[in-house]
Amino acid sequence: MVIINFAIDPAYQGQGWGELLLRETLAIMHDIGVVYFYLDVRASNIQANSLYQKYGFSEIGIRKQYYSQPDEDAIVMRKVFQ
User: Contact 22/55 with Cβ under 8 angstroms?
Assistant: First the structure.
């Protein structure tokens, strides 16, 4: 299974929609037997980084200059389902 993008429209950010979407996605992945979930997130996206950590993701690496407009590193995160 591949998810290309996971985002919430800025008009709806901070209202819990991202957490709902993440929680439901994780439940589906767990139910179908996914073992590892990897993602990339902008280094400056503190809110998303905190949410991912809350749901058991760990930082495992950095992708230098991964994003553009503006140029920015990506933090690579992983969740292991048990």
Answer: yes
Provide the β-strand partners of residue 41.
Answer: 75
**pTM of the prediction?**
0.87
| Edge-to-edge strand ranges of the sheet holding 58-67 | 36-42, 72-80, 58-67
Q: What is the pLDDT of residues 11-63, one digit of tens each?
A: 998 999 999 999 999 999 999 999 999 999 999 999 999 999 999 999 999 99
The answer to whether 1 and 29 are in contact (CB under 8 A) is yes
Tokens at 65, concatenated: 């200059």
Q: Determine if the peptide bond prior to 10 is cis (ω within 30°).
A: no
